[in-house]
Specification:
Blueprint: H1 4-24, H2 32-35, H3 45-68, E1 74-78, H4 85-91, E2 98-103, H5 105-117, H6 119-122, E3 131-132, E4 137-138, E5 142-146, H7 152-161, E6 170-175, H8 183-196, E7 199-207, H9 213-223, H10 238-246, E8 252-257, H11 258-264, H12 267-274, H13 282-289, E9 292-300
Parallel strand pairs: 1-2, 1-6, 2-5, 6-7
Antiparallel strand pairs: 3-4, 4-5, 7-9, 8-9
Helix pairs in contact: 1-3, 3-13
């Protein structure tokens, strides 16, 4: 199984990649440089375009959810790492009633330290009774909590401490998180969410089509770093990605490979970012994108129209 340190290292790598892409001009994020130090590594254009597609598509689904609920909703980011979505939503006047991030305590401790020591981050958080401990942060509408996603009792306790209201629409986000959790345990997490949140939406970005040679090379590279994709059985194809939700209490799910997701994004934005860096072989990007997907699932007890949320513009 993947060691905790190895999984945390993948979070650090992803944050470095995001910062690099932001500095190249793929998207605007004035906060990521406050979260993660500047790295020395260069990243290939297909990697940068991949992160652009990942960030843009998740943002599109998330903003549709928030607008559909008229901001009367909650966001729970699973394995959030150094994600800066809270600050972006604050700037865009799209704040939900609650925004909660969950990650390993060693990660949340670092994030709490960054926030406490960086005025531009701290100033965006409600000044009313901010409570900071070594691993957790609680404010009026923003919460960071340290917990292991496989320990459902701890998750329940931490969400209660954050004042989560299970009766209102709640969106869960996971970016390359579930694949590091044994499929049976991630299935229990997905079912626990379905059982406890009557009106919910789930956005999952993750690997797919992992049974071919490219997927094997990807797993071998991670294994050499003592990092194992213990949940890879759910990543066999788009059908298995959707089925993990529909077999665990969710009303319906949809999924697209990232090549299709990329082509769903605004044409003017694609034209803009494709001018940033010359790409020698587009085939490399197509191959890489065919091994990642975006999945979204919903259950809509309140009948607010969650089935209408997709990547259409």
């Amino acid at each position: 199984m993947a060691t905790e340190d190895a999984v945390i290292a993948t979070n650090d790598d992803a944050a470095q990649c995001k910062r690099y892409a932001v500095e190249k001009g793929y998207w605007n994020d004035p906060y990521i440089s406050l979260m993660i130090p500047k790295g020395s590594a260069r990243h290939a254009p297909e990697i940068n375009r991949g992160y652009f597609a990942r960030i843009s598509s998740i943002r599109l689904l998330l903003e549709k959810f928030i607008k559909l609920t008229n901001k009367k909703c909650q966001v729970i980011n699973l394995g959030a790492g150094y994600d800066t979505t809270f600050w972006r939503l604050k700037d865009a006047h799209l704040m939900p009633q609650k925004f909660v991030e969950i990650d390993f305590p060693v990660v949340t401790a670092k994030k709490c330290h960054h926030i406490k020591s960086k005025k531009p981050l701290l100033d965006k958080i409600s000044n009313d009774d901010i409570m900071l401990s070594k691993y957790d942060l609680h404010s009026a509408n923003y919460h960071i909590v340290g917990a292991n996603l496989t320990e459902l009792g701890d998750i329940e306790k931490k969400l209660q401490e954050s004042g989560i209201d299970r009766s209102i629409p709640t969106v869960f986000i996971a970016e390359c998180v579930l694949v590091y959790i044994d499929s049976n345990k991630s299935g229990r997490l997905i079912k626990w969410i379905s059982d406890h949140f009557p009106t919910a939406f789930f956005i999952n970005y993750e690997q797919v089509n992992m049974g071919d040679k490219f997927g094997q090379v990807m797993m071998d590279n991670l294994r050499s770093r003592d990092c194992y994709l213990t949940g890879v059985s759910a990543c066999a194809n788009l059908q298995s990605q959707m089925q993990r939700f529909t077999s665990n209490g969710w009303a319906d799910a949809d999924a697209l490979e990232m090549n299709k997701v990329y082509n769903c994004l605004p044409t003017d934005e694609l034209r803009r970012i494709e001018k940033i860096e010359f790409m020698d072989e587009r085939e490399l990007m197509v191959q890489l994108f065919s091994h990642y997907c975006l999945v979204w699932a919903y259950k809509d007890t309140l009948n607010i129209g969650l089935e209408t949320i997709d990547l259409s513009l």
